[in-house]
Amino acid sequence: xxxxxxxxxxxxxxxxxxxxxxxxxxxxxxxxxxxxxxxxxxxxxxxxxxxxxxxxxxxxxxxxxxxxxxxxxxxxxxxxxxxxxxxxxxxxxxxxxxxxxxxxxxxxxxxxxxxxxxxxxxxxxxxxxxxxxxxxxxxxxxxxxxxxxxxxxxxxxxxxxxxxxxxxxxxxxxxxxxxx
Length: 180
What we know:
Blueprint: E1 2-5, E2 12-15, E3 19-21, E4 24-26, H1 32-37, E5 46-53, E6 57-63, E7 70-76, E8 78-85, E9 96-102, E10 108-111, E11 115-121, E12 125-132, E13 141-143, H2 165-168
Antiparallel strand pairs: 1-2, 2-10, 3-4, 5-12, 6-11, 6-13, 7-10, 7-12, 8-9, 8-11
């Protein structure tokens, strides 16, 4: 597999080795021993699967007391995936990075614990799967404002994104609780 360090500390873009022919393809989407060498993990406790339509923007979500590391990939379609480093001890604190994840490129994004995470659907429909290092804790979930001018994220939005009520109520980066 190939890996690329991103512009925020500890996050990785992972491209698994693909084995294919005229019948289709095969690749290992998770192999504990190989990913452990990259520092991905340490242990996943929950798998999630999400389906959304074009223009849906989900995020930017994070858990403060039980921070989740996430290994994200797109099974169907294409998304623009964004992460924000919320670790005060990090050299890239308050910085964001975005990557395109698609069923065509089969890239995976390692989102370390201590990051907010969100995505926008670019294709007609997208399905994503992600492994989490902590269980979902709705009472611990926080949401950054997706269009906070201090973050200035270029979401590549055309028109008004489709948002949940929770995502419309996100808080600015300067008002959000962060990690040590």
